[in-house]
Write a structure and sequence with these properties.
The complex is a heterodimer of chains A (190) and B (222). Chain A is of the alpha/beta class and 190 residues long. Helices cover 35% and strands 17% of the residues of chain A. In chain A, the strands form two sheets. In chain A, strands 4-5-6-1-7 form a five-stranded parallel β-sheet, sandwiched between helices. In chain A, strands 2-3 form a two-stranded antiparallel sheet. Chain A is globular, with a radius of gyration of 16 Å. With 222 residues, chain B is an all-alpha fold. The two termini of chain B are 26 Å apart. The chains are: A alpha/beta (190), B mainly alpha (222). At the A-B interface, α2 and α3 of A face α1 and α5 of B.
Chain lengths: 190, 222
């Protein structure tokens, strides 16, 4: 049993930090919220309805970036991103992908294969999806890991913008990264 | 809705195209195994012709089994599979596209090469056509049924052996009707009944397998 008696509600503009030691269940909580894991007991509600019953509506509003990047080494950066968008939102214009890569300072790598990128660059390719996403709920598992200081600032800015636009974000972290959002909640898993 | 089918198909074909050696493994395996038998058993053409349907069909079966783990394993390891699972798209349609891509890249080349290896066994032209036809109709069923096993054994230690144990018994009807069609053509009998049964196997697995694969993936990802 990882955790019990855990309850919270998120409204538009809310940011939730999930903290806890290694193995406490931060990633498992995110996977439960994403609908990949079923909790032993309890439920996850979206607009008042269980996500297991109303999966499609919820998944249309969801962006989940786990500690796995989900990138294919043999596809180019642009091909990876355009497939990721097609999975969630349908087609995407190439300009939007170029803009998203610009935001994470990876534009020169547009047509490079992901297999040739460094760990930090791969992470930034994954995070470029935040600029392509129209999802309202972001579940980010350790988004700041493997990023340099400049990238951390860029990412903080994007998350803040998302919250100001009425989005919600749940992120796990073991380092304190202050995002100056209006409504910040903290959840420590013991 | 079909857009996602073609998007996944295109992606998997592109991936296979960029790593041709991986897709070629099964094909090479088939060529080698099928050419070993004439060397090992009696090279008398009459004996070989008798062996041909069974040996060629079993070789295809094993070659198919060899390439099956790749259908989902790579996506599972790099996290692409979890992104697919949480996408607001019908999962059974996505897995159907993945199985189709697997069949096109790993199995269709084997089907196209089979008449060449049939010649090694001294099959006549009619026998070669029936062999290729039975494989063309039977192998999609192998890919669809194999997909269920590939999904169920994801992440399991010794998954390859487990996959064979799970999937090979399901292949028996296809093997019987497929090899049976070639045997019937050699005996000068009609092959329509065998082809109809192969077609029925395909339709049944086409309807049920994508749904079963999707269910298996959901269980495995838990």
């Amino acid at each position: 049993m990882l955790f019990t008696d855990l309850a919270f509600t998120l409204s538009p503009g809310d940011l939730l930090y999930v903290t806890g030691e290694n193995g406490a269940g931060k990633s498992s909580l995110l996977r439960i919220l994403a609908g990949l894991l079923t909790p032993e007991d309890g439920e996850v509600l979206w607009d008042g309805a269980d996500i297991r019953g109303h999966g499609v509506q919820y998944r249309q509003s969801l962006l989940f970036l786990s500690h796995l990047n989900g990138l294919k080494d043999d596809l180019s950066v642009a091909e990876n991103l355009s497939f990721a968008v097609r999975l969630t939102e349908g087609s995407v214009q190439p300009e939007r992908i170029a803009q998203a890569l610009n935001a994470v300072n990876l534009q020169p790598y547009l047509n490079e294969r992901v297999g040739g990128l460094s760990q930090g660059q791969r992470r930034r390719v994954t995070l470029a999806r935040l600029w392509l996403s129209r999802a309202r709920v972001w579940l980010l598992d350790e988004p700041f890991v493997a990023l340099d200081a400049a990238s951390v600032e860029i990412l903080k800015g994007r998350i803040l913008q998302h919250l100001q636009d009425g989005g919600m974000t749940v992120l796990t972290t073991h380092q304190e990264v202050a995002i100056p959002a209006e409504r910040v909640h903290r959840l420590k898993i013991a | 809705m079909m857009a996602i089918f073609f998007a996944v198909l295109q992606r998997d074909l592109r991936l296979a195209w960029r790593k041709p050696a991986e897709a070629a493994t099964g094909v090479m395996f088939f060529i080698i195994v099928a050419s070993l038998f004439p060397l090992a058993v009696n090279p008398d053409p009459v004996v070989l012709r008798g062996f041909a349907p069974g040996v060629l069909w079993v070789s295809v079966l094993l070659a198919c089994l060899l390439s099956l783990p790749r259908v989902f394993a790579l996506d599972y390891v790099d996290g692409a599979l979890e992104q697919i699972m949480i996408a607001p798209q019908p999962l059974s349609l996505i897995v159907l596209a993945k199985v189709a891509a697997h069949w096109l890249t790993a199995t269709l080349p084997i089907v196209l090469l089979s008449p060449l290896l049939g010649m090694l066994y001294g099959l006549d032209s009619h026998g070669l056509i029936v062999l290729a036809g039975s494989l063309l109709l039977g192998t999609p069923t192998l890919s669809l049924l194999g997909g269920i096993g590939a999904a169920l054994t994801l992440g399991a230690r010794g998954g390859g052996v487990l996959l064979s144990v799970l999937v090979l018994p399901l292949y028996i009807p296809v093997l019987i009707f497929g090899a049976g069609a070639v045997v019937a053509s050699q005996a000068g009998l009609g092959v329509q009944a065998h082809f109809s049964l192969l077609g029925a196997c395909f339709l049944l697995s086409f309807v049920l397998a994508p749904w079963a694969i999707a269910a298996a993936l959901k269980i495995v990802m838990e």
